[in-house]
Amino acid sequence: MVITYAEIDGFKNLSDISFAPDLKYNIIVGANAQGKTNLLEALWILSGCRSFRGSKERDYIDLNGSRMTSKIKIRDVVREQKIEFEMLKSSNIIKNIALNGVKQKGTRALFDVFKCIAFIPDDVDIIKGAPEKRRNFIDMAASQLNPLFVVHINKNNAVMNQRNALLKSIMQGNASADVLEIWDRQAAHEGALISYMRNEYVRKINEICGRLYSAISGGTEILELEYRSNVYKSEDFELPCNEAAQEKYYNKLRETAEYDIRTGSTHSGVNRDEIIVRINGVSAKDYGSQGQIKSAALVMKLAQAEIFMSRSKDAPVVFLDDVMGELDENRQRFVFEIIKDMQVFITTPNESALLPEIHGKILHISGGTLR
């Protein structure tokens, strides 16, 4: 998969940008705060994913502007497609999304069409951040292989919002605890599916991460990932995800229901899962050095790309946001060996920091415009 044309205007500080990317390497050069990351972000949102920077949609439009647009043409092994994303600022935010000229109700359809992987400096939070960071990484990576996973994640989130609101009402004496069972049954259905999907993806990525981390560390260190479910034991995943698995999940919710009512929030289920990352048998989050944490996060993203390549006819588009300059020559070569068959967008303040054999289109950005 490659981007053949891009057009961006009014996204944060970007204005009147249009270019035909190189099919291999695109090097976006500029000083800090000139719009390098904004350009990648404006392309990334066309994948249907939330901003990799955590930006809220209302912040996509420039502070002094009233409209933003981001458009791309992409080509995969089957055909060329066009994605358009427009936002208008008035008394409220109006969002218009179109795929091949057909208006979409939301971004759901984009997730099935445009596949990309971003490497950013904040990726270290996958290792050292809160459990939610690791859950989100696994969920998004697994969803790229099976977009149906997104449906279950969204359903579970909706059920959890309703359940937590009900818990608060029960706690305040405004609702009956008997109603909780209805939401627990729905939560058990979605939660069981999510648990099994997460376990399967962690199992796959663990194998690849171990191999890649051994290579990047010269064979001196071992990286391991373990999915720790809040409901199931590891041996439970050897059994099918059936009614018995859902019943086990349901029973877990019932066990903590009394405590949930007292506190007004849910304490069981997939929203409490953890993905443990170990280097040489100890927690990378608690005991890993800065270098180990950076390498582990990098390897997890590379493994994500490798898994996607092995399961899809198309390679994902890769965004490298200001990360290559921090890597020594050997690690840069290691990264580019993994992504050599993908279209790559690289941001850097200094193109001389990149490997000399990286040849492609150089785009200079200043004040939100390209030269």
Describe, in plain words, how this protein is organized in 3D.
With 371 residues, this protein is of the alpha/beta class. 40% of the residues lie in helices and 22% in strands. The strands form three sheets. It has a six-stranded antiparallel β-sheet with strand order 2-1-4-5-6-7. Helix 4 (131-145) crosses helix 6, helix 6 (180-216) packs across helix 7 and helix 6 (180-216) packs across helix 10 (290-311).
Radius of gyration: 22 Å
Low-confidence stretches: none
By helix and strand content, what is the structural category? Answer: alpha/beta
List the helices and strands in order. EEEHEEEEHEHHHHEHHEEHHEHEEE
**Largest sheet properties:** 6 strands, antiparallel
Note the overall shape: globular
Give the termini separation. Answer: 26 Å
pLDDT averaged residue by residue: 91
Strand order of the largest sheet: 2-1-4-5-6-7
Count every beta strand, where a strand is a DSSP E run of 2 or more residues: 15
- Taken as a percent bin, the fraction of beta residues is 15-25%
Measured as a percent range, the helix fraction is 40-55%
Report the total helices.
11
